[in-house]
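Reopening this ticket.

The earlier resolution said the output was attached, but the attachment link was broken on my side. Pasting everything inline this time so it's all in one place.
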Amino acid sequence: MIPFHRRVAAAAGFLILASSAADAAAFKAAYAACQDKAVFKKALTFPGDKDGKKAGEFLKGRIDAHECLLFNRGQEVSVDERDGNLWCVRRGGDLECYWTIDKVIDLNPPLTSGGGASGQSGGKRGRH
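Inline output:
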């Protein structure tokens, strides 16, 4: 008979693994994300910026100031928080999450081999 504390530890480990897999995601395209939700929201509020040029310039400035990061296409993340169309994503091993727009996150990314290198689209390589 397995001791109770070992069964509890095994069940907890399973739940951790299961929740990690459910939150697995990847960027559909290279896109910025910011630690401060208010900074990212500001990029979405430029009046008359239908082509996104002002937002892009603003986010580039925040990336240069180390307030935001540029994530690569295919970069694997987990979704920590959701606030409408704004999602806070975390890179593996990071303590902080970064706010971005939900449209650039793939909740069902293709499986990758070799640990899912950043900037790669996973299973799409090698198809002709």
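Reporter confirms the inline version is readable. The CA atoms of residues 86 and 101 lie 5 Å apart. The mean pLDDT is 78.
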